Batch of 3 targets.
Target 1
Amino acid sequence: MKLLFVSETNLRDQFFIKDFVHNFKFEEKALLVHAPFGGTERDTRFVTRRFSSLLSEAMVYNNAFMAQQRQLVTRDEAGTYTINEALIRQLLPPIQLLVIGPVLAGPEGPELVSGLGILKALRRTFGIEEVLLFPAHGLSPLAKTRPRIETAADIAPLMKLYDEEADVLQRAVELAPARIVSPVNYAH
């Protein structure tokens, strides 16, 4: 199973979305978590549904849920995320990709979360080795090499060459092991 994270910068990039949708070639199942969009729960819900509809138009069988729906993901008072593994396994057979929006049920209603906690919990629950991340610039030469990041030492030489991609490099260390890929080569 593949695990992908799409940042808000990626979600704002029309060319990224187009390339991602038209280059989806996974034969195995995939889970995609994206960052909050626009700073509001409403905008984030819209983007989750829009992303899913674009995939559907390209004949990628997918489904999109907010993390709070059907208690797909819950968070306890200590901040620990729990994944409803049985439900996800039930949802996956007829689809290729499950898109999970970062909206959780909070004590005072729906609340946005970063998505990284959900990503880490999915990885732990399903035993997924690496997370696929995308650079801010879809055509970045960084992604052409598909570097695998396991420690902070792995990004030191890359930071010197690709300082404009500092955010994705630092996120890769936080989520290590991770691989930085482009929307054109991520499914290879």
Target 2
Amino acid sequence: MFDIGWSELLILGIITLLFVGPKELPVFLRTIGRFTSVVRKQAAEFRAQFDEAMRDTELDQIRKDVAGLRDEVSSTVRQAKSSVESELAEATREADIVAKSAQTPALPKAGSTEAASAVQTETVDAPQKAPEAVAEPVPVAVPAGTAVPTQQEEKSRL
């Protein structure tokens, strides 16, 4: 970190020995060791808090992303549901209209003269007899020896 070589460390040791003295040197080195351990603990705590803040920030970002995706999916589902419901309502309305028109015939407005004349003129006549055939039947080839009655013979039988 500080790029201190052996020669520089030896010079620092000699200067410390001259200023502190040989009698106080062990106490001084112990104090420096304690100070170094306190600084390392504080650095570790700071790093842990910083890492935790970064994780929280990342988690918050992930939570926001997930919430955005959830909102997007739910809005898409909501739109699909509303379109299906509107199509279903429209189809139901059309089916009701068709059912009503099949149940009740179209009549003119009540109170009008057309309604009275429509009701009065609507009578059912007795069934009429179907007209007789105008064209004569086509002759069929019959094998010799079988007798086929003519039209006049058939009419006389009836």
Target 3
Amino acid sequence: AATDFAIALVQSLVAQELGVSASEFQSLLDALGK
């Protein structure tokens, strides 16, 4: 659970830095994961 929280936190910070929405960032992660 701690790892999941850390990942979510990093994702939110990165999304803010890049100025993209969470949905767009998630879509990018999905694309990279395939």
